[in-house]
Specification:
The structure is a homodimer. By secondary structure, chain A is of the alpha+beta class. Chain A has 7 helices and 11 strands. In chain A, strand 1 and strand 2 form a beta hairpin. Chain A is elongated. The C terminus of chain A is likely disordered. Chain A binds a DNA duplex through helix 3.
Amino acid sequence: MLTTGRISVDARSPTPLYLQLAESLRGMISDGAVRVGEALPSERELSALTGISRVTVRKAIDTLLREGLLSRRPGSGTYVSTRIEQPASLLAGFTADMRTRGSRPGSVWIEKVVGPPTPEEAMMLAVGPGAPVVRLARVRTADDEPLAIERAVVPAALLPGVEEIGESLYEALGRRGNRPVRGLQRLQSSLATSAEAQLLNVPVGAAILRIERRSFLASGAPVEFTRSAYRGDRYDFVTEVREPPMRGGEEGGR
Amino acid sequence: MLTTGRISVDARSPTPLYLQLAESLRGMISDGAVRVGEALPSERELSALTGISRVTVRKAIDTLLREGLLSRRPGSGTYVSTRIEQPASLLAGFTADMRTRGSRPGSVWIEKVVGPPTPEEAMMLAVGPGAPVVRLARVRTADDEPLAIERAVVPAALLPGVEEIGESLYEALGRRGNRPVRGLQRLQSSLATSAEAQLLNVPVGAAILRIERRSFLASGAPVEFTRSAYRGDRYDFVTEVREPPMRGGEEGGR
DNA sequence: CAGTGGTCTAGACCACATA
DNA sequence: ATGTGGTCTAGACCACTGA
């Protein structure tokens, strides 16, 4: 086991050296031991410090390059990337989403009931037909203008009493320690039905962005199944995409 | 210059050996010299055939792995991928995206020119007004049905000659070692204009999913700025969302 | 068992950035 | 001129696959 400053690698560990080193470097960056815009120690320096060959040091750096944490400048050094503007592709509810956009979120309740799940809901939430679910339907507003219709279904066991659910579903889930950690969303472009047009105050046939979301606890248990219809003229969805992770190799290039 | 079967590398070329070899292997795959599901010659074999060290052979294979063309099976061999298992929301071009969905991608060129950037393009790509950009416009098809209109702009310096750009822009970028590692996308729901309706074979006012993408190298340099218009009735976009990463002072929920 | 990919080393030379 | 990343080599050992 070798520990130099914040770098520690163990040659006897089953984890490859380059992954151990990558992890150490990741830690130094998130700890602020190396600040954004600053250069890492040079590859030869890291090699000397850790006793790892330069080829392997490069391989560690390559993995962080692919994560966008570092960038190399030939002839100069390897630098901590400027922090990426965090897009709204994070797991946030409507309330938090609107706040980050600088709007004032609000909502008008359409439905708030507890009852047995439909077969589709039971499937999506992986609950038995006997386990009650909470059904929440709202018109969501931003600065008092209707922006979206949102229909959420959540296993009742994960929520406090229906009466205690305020503006934010995620906040209510959090009170019980049931905030989701991960979700899958499906986005689709479509046209407003007459019912939607009325609720959203747009003409029939207006552009609608439909978002379907399933989110999960760390355990993998489904938390919510939500279908939303956003006004296409007032809402856009920003997401970040990345390179798929590699199965074994390396390479950073250019 | 060495030419063995279809593999040819030139040690005196300014192009790194691993990129030359990657290009040769890409050729063998698209030529059908190595069929889908078949194994490539082993790394040691390729090394002996080409006179390139095994480390460098691996580096060539790594670049193709990241493009999803190959997959490695430890103890067994390196195989030409059948279909790519990508849970979408990954940084893939249209070609790879369609293959993942099990459709046959195709395209009809509308425009393919090199020229000076417009002010907006210069801004989006962070290039000077004197640096030429390549403008690529296509109707993208899936199983011969028009699915999207795509207009991409790329700094000319990052691409091989315009003539060498085939179906896949990302593949062409990869040939120069310029595959982006991350991107930002903006999705919006909207209605088809008459020009779009004609190209996509839908009625005017049909649902359109607009996707705007900027993607970047690890260095942070912009690679492409692409605006697409997808048929809303035939395409949905799936993305994964996660919890925001935690800052120093943790907190675990519960 | 022989062959494969996965990892790792200790060198080396190059082009480029910084100064 | 020195230091940096970029490339490349010729070995080596390991864990695993598959006949």
